[in-house]
Amino acid sequence: MAEDNFESTLNTHYGRKGLGDRIIAALKETGKDLDAITADDLSPVAEFHIGGQGATLQLAQSAGMGAGMRVLDVGSGLGGPARTIAQHYGCKVTGLDLTEEFCRVATMLTELCGMQERVVFMHGNALDMPFDDSSFDLVWTQQAGMNIENKLRLYQEVHRVLAVGGRLVFQEVLCGPETPLHLPVPWASEGSMSFLRPPDVTRDLLAQAGFREMIWHDVTAQYVDEYRKLAAQTADPGGPPPLGIHLILGPEAGQMRRNVVRNLEEQRIVLIQGVLKKA
Ligand SMILES: C[S@@+](CC[C@H](N)C(=O)[O-])C[C@H]1O[C@@H](n2cnc3c(N)ncnc32)[C@H](O)[C@@H]1O
Questions:
Q1: Which protein residues are within 6 Å of ligand 1, measured from CB?
Q2: Atom 14, ligand 1: which residue's CA is nearest?
Q3: CATH number of the domain bearing residue 47
Q4: Residue of the CA atom closest to atom 24 of ligand 1
């Protein structure tokens, strides 16, 4: 698929209009004071990956984050991970995402919790990043690579924008030993949007791009149960709690989450956290 076409497919998939309004309405329904919102309050809807904010904090612990670090979040979505690491570790974070609506809502949510001095969002493609060489100390990315076919170019771009000795810190869904994938899933309504590679291929590509592996951690088993509960909650007759990822996924949320559970249980997908160093 040509890149322009793919951008529009991605924007249709993720960027359903009115998302900001739906989130504000849900926050009001939970009784939150809109003048006192924190990154943690927003995490149920803004941490759009398996394991939610818990997985972000787990990954950050092994990543060697530090105050004042210049961090780039590739595929930053609604900015949940960016705000979490800025709030918990004192980093300055730039988020880059190809879905325009996500960038708009991420900026609005960041202003809502008064973090706009530390966290900013830009619309752009991870395969052609609008940053100079060596601009960041750390590149963070959680579950964005599944939509990106040209992994080598992605890793080369990450390598380019990292300072020497900088780290790539990621959580990614990779292809398990069984195929095909049950669809739809939260990152793809159809197969042509999902580009999963097996762990060994991914590791080779990262090495080819110039990365040295420090941590490679298969966290699939750790998060299956939690995701099962989330899927059950989405199907609950009373409906899920007001603030959640279903606000992004829309009417297919239940089916998508059930499919993630099946894909995890049947080893069609695996969840990996990793830390790599720019050699
Ligand atoms: C499942 S969401 C994860 C969002 C966020 N990382 C999180 O964990 O909350 C995947 C994100 O990757 C973004 N994405 C996919 N392909 C991209 C690309 N080529 N460049 C930038 N962002 C991309 C999508 O727009 C989407 O926001």
A1: 10, 14, 47-49, 75-77, 80-81, 96-99, 102, 125-127, 142-144, 147-148, 187
A2: 75
A3: 3.40.50.150
A4: 75
Residue of minimum CA distance from atom 27 in ligand 1? 77
Distance 59 CA to ligand 1 centre (A): 17
The reported pTM is 0.97
pLDDT band of residue 63 (cuts 50, 70, 90) is: very high
CA of 142 to the centre of ligand 1 (A): 8
Q: How confident is the model over 82-104, as pLDDT tens digits?
A: 999 999 999 999 999 999 999 99
**For the chain, what is the mean pLDDT?**
96
Q: Please list, in sequence order, all residues whose beta carbon lies within 8 angstroms of the beta carbon of residue 10, skipping any fewer than 6 positions away.
A: 98, 99, 147, 193
Q: What is the pLDDT of residue 2?
A: 66
Q: How far apart are CA 15 and CA 96, in angstroms?
A: 15
Domain ranges, residue 89: 3-278
Atom of ligand 1 nearest to the CA of 141: 6
Q: Say which residues have a Cβ less than 8 Å from residue 15's Cβ, sequence separation at least 6.
A: 99, 100, 101, 102
Cα 149 to ligand 1 centre (Å): 13
- Ligand 1 atom with minimal separation from the 96 CA: 21
Number of independent structural domains in the chain:
1
Question: Looking at residues 65-79, what average pLDDT do you find?
Answer: 96
CB 118 within 8 A of CB 63: no
